[in-house]
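agent: user wants the full assembly modeled, not chains individually. Plan: 1) parse entity lines 2) check alphabet per entity 3) run joint structure prediction 4) return tokens. Steps 1-2 passed, three entities, 1010 residues total. Proceeding.
--- entities ---
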Amino acid sequence: MLQVLQQRRWPLVLFWVLIVAAVVAAPAVLPVFRLNLLGRFLALAIVALGIDLIWGFTGLLSLGQGIFFALGGYAIAMYLQMNSSADLPNGIPEFFGLYGVDQLPGFWEPFHSPVFTLIAIWLIPAVLAAVLGNLVFRNRIKGVYFSILTQAALLVFFNFFNGQQKLINGTNGLKTDVTQLFGQLVGSPEMQRVFFWLTAVVVILAWLFLRWVVRGRFGDVLIAIRDDEPRLRFAGYNPTLFKTIVFAIAGGLAGIGGALYTVQSGIVSPQFMTVPFSIEMVIWVAVGGRGTLVGAILGAVLINYAKSLVSEAMPQSWLFIQGGLFILVVTALPEGVIGWFRGEGPGNWLNRLGIARRSTTYPRLDREGQEEVQP
Amino acid sequence: MTQPLLELRQITVSFDGFLALSDLNLSLQPGELRAVIGPNGAGKTTFLDVITGKTVPTGGDVVFKGRSLIGTREHRIARLGVGRKFQSPRVFEKLSVQQNLALAVSQPKQPWSLLLGGLSGEQRDRVHQLMSIVNLQNRCDWFAGALSHGQKQWLEIAMLVGQNPDLLLVDEPVAGLTDEETDLTADLLKSLAGDHTVLVIEHDMEFIRRLDSSVTVLHQGHVLCEGTMDQVQADPRVIEVYLGTTEEDNG
Amino acid sequence: MQLLLESLFNGVAIGSVLLMAALGLAIVFGLMGVINLAHGELIMLGAYTTYVVQLIFKLPALQPVYNTYVLVAIPLAFIVSGVVGVLLERTVIRRLYGNPLETLLATWGVSLILQQFVRSVPLAHAAGLMLTLVLGFGLPLLLPQKLLAGPRRRLMCAGSWAVSALGGVLLAGGLAAQISRIARATSRNVDVTAPKWMRGGIDYFDITFPVPRLVIIVITVVAVVGVTWFLNRSVWGMRIRAVTQNRSMSDCLGIPTETVDVLTFGIGSGLAGVAGVAVSLLGSVGPNVGGSYIVGCFMVVVLGGVGNLLGTVLASFAIGLLTDLIGAGRLLTVWPDMPTPLADVVNFFATTSMAQVMVFALIVVFLQFRPAGLFPQKGRMVEA
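--- prediction returned ---
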């Protein structure tokens, strides 16, 4: 600990203490409405973690994470609808009656099972991501082409879900807040508190998982793909396989995030798959700091918190601010907030305030007492 | 005569009608050190592209250890034992020197083995050994992008050696190096030959002379002549290609 | 025969709108490697410009020539979108050359701002601001260079901006007074009324060809021919291509590369403006009008391949024809008694949005065989 302080990392330590304290204290302090918002933002942070893995580390900018997010949401919503419609006529969800459907479409059947649903939440998005990703990656389509194709895929899924009333209630989406889980109303304050804790835990687990993924040689390969993918091939690695895997992981995480978001927002609808929302996800990561997992979490929570504050006060101005953020972050702050913190940013800032900063020598001659040798 | 390690048979590469390589034949014996020279546009880099699978030839066949490489993807060719160093050094700039080398020596190169296990002690030793060979041991935690041009050249050579390929394809290893570094590189490549088969592309005649190997001259996409450095330099066709103006160089 | 002709016409009509919308995007992407997500909003600006021009032509003084407003709207829309595009290039995009993904995000930010701008700023004021910008940048170019040289330079610049601002204020005030409705912020959509000669259609072979569609096809043909001529025959076109192929070499040869960047981006953006005119003839104009075209444009670019106008043209018409073929369920018309399961499938996709689903799937399949589009770039430079 002393060593940590000596390395002038106390702002970081303090920062962590504050964050953890805030999350632990939140359920006690915040009114349910605010707590619910925070829980939703944490669910979005899970999606952001996945985006950070594929964009921040691997350099794949997906503008279609909304697909996987929504699929996770639909999976849990279908289960909840089924779970709560046993005593309805026909025993199928109520909305089917609106369109004169009296026979449950086949693909709903497995969602009777809670176990299947829990697996489907992440497995369906992950498999879809793997298939779509592989189709693109194996042809070495990359860069902006990949981004454009993911965006088009998003639009396609939006159109599909939006248009199919008789299958999944089309544009109205599926409500979850009036459904039952364990005999409790999903929208009730007690359940919402549970979901908040659940989300917080999942965020931490996802973070630990991704930390494990990106530390070590697997993560090094991802960075190598970002820097120079063709070169990596000549070193005997198959980038397509790595990219498919991380895209699937990101898809799975987006699915989990979508499910947790859905139970806390009370509805899943094709609105989860709009083009702006999926691009917005990218900016959370960019603001927080791509390539830093913490940045993704922080960015998602902060931006969404700012969004809800601004939207409450001045609904007109949010898009201006968001648009400005996009421009600012890529032109002036490419490393994001965390990157700025880790770099020279705060030091310069302290300097300007007259607080001296310990200068570091570069290159470090003191390391291991070795002498400089010019090859 | 033993079976050649690598054999190029009547390789032709055409880019929209422009013949980058035409009817190129070449074979390498195991353990051989071979230098390839040729004026700009002779097809030297395309020739490496064909062997490593980056470019699919329009016609002809590449046979490595008795099997054809045509249609095999780059990473598979690399795993079969063909390593390549690029013309301008290509290292992974956002990884440290040590990480770059670790990626090179890792075996197998499957995602799960990278996820689930660390480097073995043997591989770790190998990384350190490579770093000391190319004199980068006190740069081990530096980002490769922060290295000087010469250091990047050497790091890439070290990565190539770390891959432990049977065939090393080295494209302009001494471009931008000092005389002293050039000599060291030549010694390094010579020491590798024997255990490995080495093919060097270079412009620097002094360097090639120092390698003391057989030389192949490429011109307009095919082999002009082969022989020792002295033989090649005395060949009138080579003199004409390098100095003469009787034929337009369409490079 | 009649069916074929009708289908062909519809496909070409859809395709030509798509082509017009994608043309500017394809040029900017092909020549500069910049993906401009604000392209849709530049189209929107062109559409709104058409609307404003049409309102101005409703003034009593201009009433007699009302029918020709489209001819005025086309160059104006080109200029308005072009100027905004140039501003965008100078302020944001040029900092990001070589970072296509970053450019993509930044231009998305611009598109959000432009959308919200149209929503929250009254149209009359916005039109005034646009006029100010256009005049402010345009006047110094029109004035004799002699006036701008020497010590009077600053004065002249300030003066031209003052005149521009005055013009802007006058336009804003005039528009606001003329039609009180548009003085308010218009988050609602507005409709451009087509001039009389554009309503209705021409009957031929028992098929009605709607005139607006025909006009759009003509505009598109002119635009494509014009762009092709410009890029391949004119001096500046040659410079643009030179910079695309080798920027540093072009620099050394004395080509003003920065001017070339501005010009390329300006032309691409201006074409978006012209596309806006076309779009306004088809339906109502709103802040979201650009967004509904942008993904289609990208599909054209992906399918067509980079740096080849012919690819863009073919891709547009291919997508247009396919959309019509699938969206209108034409297979069923040709082959009424196809087996039921197949008919169900055809019917399932027989809406505009479901046709998009199918077209996307087909494009992905196509990319499995031709990953770089219809006309891929070749040679050793591809993966440098």
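agent: reporting back. Chain B has two domains: 6-86+165-242, 92-146. The longest strand of chain B covers residues 18-28.
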